[in-house]
Description:
Blueprint: E1 9-13, H1 17-25, H2 28-37, H3 42-66, E2 69-73, E3 87-91, H4 94-101, E4 108-112, H5 131-139, E5 145-148, E6 151-155, E7 160-163, E8 166-171, E9 177-183, E10 186-192, E11 194-198, H6 206-221, E12 238-244, E13 258-262, E14 267-271, E15 277-281, E16 288-290, E17 296-301, E18 306-309
Parallel strand pairs: 1-2, 1-3, 3-4, 4-18
Antiparallel strand pairs: 5-18, 6-7, 6-17, 8-11, 8-15, 9-10, 9-14, 11-12, 12-13, 14-17, 15-16
Amino acid sequence: MATPVERKVVLVTRRTRLEELVARYHTLAQARFYIEHLGADFSDYVRENAAYAHSLQLAVEGLQARGRYQIVDRGYLPNFMFAPDDIVVALGQDGLVANTMKYLDGQPLVGVNPEPSRWDGVLLPFEAKDLKLVLDDVAHDRRATKAVTMAEARLSDGQTLRAVNDLFIGPRTHTSALYDIELGERRESQSSSGVIVSTGLGSTAWLKSMVTGSLGIARALSPGRPFKYKAEPWDTDRLTFAVREPFPTKTSSADLVFGAVAREQELKIRSRMPDNGVIFSDGMEADYLRFTAGMVATITIAAVAGRLAV
């Protein structure tokens, strides 16, 4: 085990919108032409890119002054091997923290906001200029961390995928998902747009938008029945699942469409999709598990919790 000073820091970065555009259109001039042709403000892309570059420079300077470090782009996370005593830093938006945390096994994660005037940074309590001090605290276990419950999908062939915000189980394209869903003694066959399984942290994101939309429809159909949505704590001991656009037919039901999965429970979903069935998490569609006919996904709370430095 490395000493506090010897512990390696892994800095996770992501490309800015401008860098994504240049990669797509090959040159800065072509990227500018595309954006301005659509009537958008290209200077905003430039400012965002400059702010990120400045924060990255400050972060690297802090890491160089401290010792061992490695920089990893978000796209390489699915295949990157973190050491047990690594300290991990995510420089980007809140989503980058979620994208990074699900690949960790209890290593502390530090979220750094590259541009506080642009990003709210719920998961980004620090700035690049604070990094050296924060890392010293984390390395010596002087910095508190907040536990984050994660979800895990385990397929019948042994493949697994974790989620910090949510798992999506359904079709890869805009078609119907066909599957059997089972929770405890309840079981039914369904046809829908897919199933979302949310953690406590994710209850402020995709799940919230689904419930908000459903409540709006319910209020329109039955006025006078107010209900206020309440998000779960980040370290909650349960997951919440919701079925998107369930469609009852002669062979499919729509009763088991929302509920909680306690720590000791399993939510099981068996695919009946001959093709295009997938499971992905936290919006990273490129890192997915194939979920085709006959495969069974068992959804539980992950044994390992995330550790976010605060």
